[in-house]
Amino acid sequence: MNKTVNIIYPRRRQTAKDVKVIGLQEPVRRTMYDIVKDNFRTIQRTDFLMRLIYIGEHTFSKSDNTLNDFFLETVTRANDNFQCSEKITGLLVRYAKHFIHVLEGDEIAIHLHLKYLYKSETHLQKLKNMKLLVQINHCHSRLLSDWQTYTANPSMLLETIDAENIQEETGRQIFVCVKKMYDLVEKMSVRSSGIMRSSELGSFQLDSMSLRERSSLYVRSSMIGGSLNYVEYYQKELPEIERLEFLLKSPFPIDLTAFKEIFGVVPQRDIYKDKVWPVPADFIPYDIFDQLYDIRLDMPKPGVKEVSNSDVEEEHLLEVDDDTNEEKTD
Question: How many domains, in total, are found in the chain?
């Protein structure tokens, strides 16, 4: 006759997740990191967007496209890096001997572009005196959706630049150049059919040396032909060469080489030479061991002469002398 044996298995211990707390629930604690991630998710971005605007001089030939190809190569190499989450977009405006470069991308992409820019010694010899105008570490949105080039001749500046008050004039000219570049990008985005993307032709050529003698205040006539009309549509927004030359000679804009050295190297701060941790604060009593001080624990009685600190020190010295005399007699 078979007997059934009832096996009693041990019950699974109830974990903290299975226990339902009845009553007031613990509030969900959100940190600043959670808020930053939510903001990135809202704007469909994964990293902070950085913007640079720098100017410079070049000695490349006007007939060839070497300058545009070189900058396109540095941007492409930076975008091909797997660490770049926000690819580089921007606009390169090229004159006969000057250029203006607007860059947008994440921190790693901008650093790689500057690294490849200064790595090529053959092309770097023809790029001289590059200076930074604006650095924005966190942009709300991009100006352009692709990297583009634009070659043209700006108008001649009629107004005089105050060279005596160089500090205030430098700030004013930087503001004017940046404002003109923003207006130029806005016009190009509105008339998107007029500008070629770098993936298609590489650059948009609009060179006309006869336009150099015109002023930026010149109002175009309706009798001008179609091609000239199209050139002057953007020409009004181009920063003049006189402004760029003044900014390149001014000592206040930071040199792009110095900016690369500061930006590309993480600073190692030598705080107290790593000998003291944590770092001393203001409330630490540094003079606590300067002199001997006996703390009085008893409250003074009325009618009793108050004992001064000198009497306490003399009494302490007498006790020390008595102890030494007893040791000698022993």
Answer: 1
